[in-house]
Amino acid sequence: MTLGKRRERERVLSGIQPTGSGSHLGNYLGAIRHWVQMQDDFDAFYFIPDMHAITVVHDPAALHRRTRETVAELVACGLDPSRCTLFVQSQVPEHAQLAWVLGCITGYGEANRMTQFKDKSARGELGAATVGLFTYPILQAADILLYQADRVPVGEDQKQHLELTRDLAQRFNARFGPTFTVPAAYIATTAERLTDLQEPHRKMSKSLPPGGTIYLQDDPKVLTKKIRSAVTDMGREVVVGPDKPGITNLIGIHAALTGQSTQEVERAYAGKGYGEFKADVAAALVATLEPIQTRFREIVADPGELDRILGVGADKAEEVASATLATAFDRVGFLPRARGAQ
Ligand code: TYM
User: Fold this and answer.
1) Short-list 157, 164, 148, CA closest to 187
2) In the prediction, which pLDDT does 125 show?
C-alpha cells in the first residue's frame, strides 16, 4: 500500500551499520548488491544507521572513521549518489523523533520478542545490554516508515524487524488515520543468510572472530586462505544439505557471485571434490572484490567529497522525512509550532 501522492517509481530503503572492521560478504551478497541493482528501477534511499551503532559499547573515533568508510564501500560497490539518496541517520533528526512516537504504540512484550536483542544480550558478549539496544527495532521502524518505503531489501536476519515495522504501520494507520505505507520485505533467494566459515551454524557477522568472516577489504591472499580453510563437512560431494552446512554456505556464495542457482553449481561440480570447488569459490571472490577494493581506496582518500555527498543526501532525505513526521505529529494531536513568532 502506498499512501499520499502516487509515485512513478516504487521507493526502496535500506541501511547498513558502520560497525566492526568493515562490511562483510554477508552484507554484500545479502543486501548491497541488490541495492545497486535497484537504484534505477526504484526511488532508492540508502543510509548508514550510526545511531544504531551506539546501542553497544563503541569507540567514538572508530565510529567517525567507519561512517565515512562505509559510505566509501557502498559507492565502491556501485551505489551512485546521483542515482540514489545516500545519507547518515544522525544527520536527519526526524528518525529519533518518529521513533519516540512509535515507541508509544509498541507493547513491551512485543519489543521483548525481538530475537536479535535476545541473542545479543544472552551471549553476554556486549556486557550489559542497554535500553537503546532493546528499543533499536523501533528506531528501525521509524527509519523505514519516514520514507514511505514500499520495499526494504535486507538479509533474512532482518525479517522480524520488518514484521514489527509492518505491525506498527498498520496499528498507527488504524488508530490515527492513514499515514504510513506498509512496506514489504525484499529478501534475496541466494545468500540471504551467509554463515560463518568456521562455525557454519552461525550467521556471518562482524561480531564473530575474523577467520570465519570475509571482509570486503580482505587482501586476495587472505580471501583465498579463508576459503581454503573454511570448515567443510563429511563426504566429498558438492551438494546442498542440512547435514552439510559448510558446503551449503560455500555453494550459496559461489551461486551468488556467479549469478547461478545453487542447483547449477551442484551440477557443475558433480564428481569433483571440495579442493577444486574451493579454489573456484576463492577465484570468484577475488574477481568480485579486487575492483571494489581499488575503487574503495580512491574514494576513501577524499573525505571532503564523501561529506559533500552525504550533505546532499541528508537534504534530500530530510525533505521526505520532515513531511512524513509533520503528518504523524498532526495525527497524534501535537500542536504545530508557530514559525517566526515575536
Ligand atoms: P546490518 O548492518 O547488520 O546488515 C546490513 C545488511 O546486511 C544483511 N546481512 C546479511 N545478509 C546475509 N547473510 C548475512 N550473514 C548477513 N549479515 C547481514 C542484513 O540483513 C542487512 O540487510 N538493523 C539493520 C540496519 C538497519 C536497517 C534499517 C535496515 C537499520 N535501520 C532500516 C533496513 C531498514 C542492521 O543491523 O543491518
Assistant:
1) 157
2) 56
Q: Is 123 exposed, middle or buried (0-12, 13-18, 19+ CB in 10 A)?
A: exposed
Q: Which ligand 1 atom minimizes the distance to the CA of 161?
A: 23
* Among protein residues, the one whose CA lies closest to atom 7 of ligand 1: 27
pLDDT in tens, 125-148: 555 788 999 999 999 999 999 999
Using CA atoms, how far apart are residues 288 and 293, in angstroms rounded to an integer?
9
- Terminus-to-terminus CA distance in the chain, angstroms? 42
Distance from Cα 324 to the centre of ligand 1, integer Å: 24
- pLDDT for 323 beyond 90: yes
pLDDT tens digits, residue range 249-270? Answer: 999 999 999 999 999 999 999 9
Cell 513531511 found at: 323
Ranges of CATH 1.10.240.10 domains, the chain: 210-298
pLDDT at 129: 84
Distance from C-alpha of 120 to C-alpha of 70, rounded to nearest angstrom: 23
Ligand 1 pocket, Cβ-based, cut-off 6 angstroms: 13-17, 26-27, 30-31, 49, 52, 140, 143-144, 152, 154-155, 157-158, 191-194, 203-204
Q: Say yes or no to pLDDT of 3 above 60.
A: no
CATH class of 11-186+302-332: alpha beta
> CA 57 to CA 29: how far, in whole Å?
27
Fold type of domain 210-298? Tyrosyl-Transfer RNA Synthetase (1.10.240)
Q: For Cα atoms 71, 76, 82, give the angle at the middle one, nearest 5 degrees.
A: 70
What does the alpha-carbon distance between residue 205 and residue 123 come to, in Å, rounded to a whole number? 14
Kindly name the residue from 120, 226, 244, 278 that is annotated as catalytic: 120
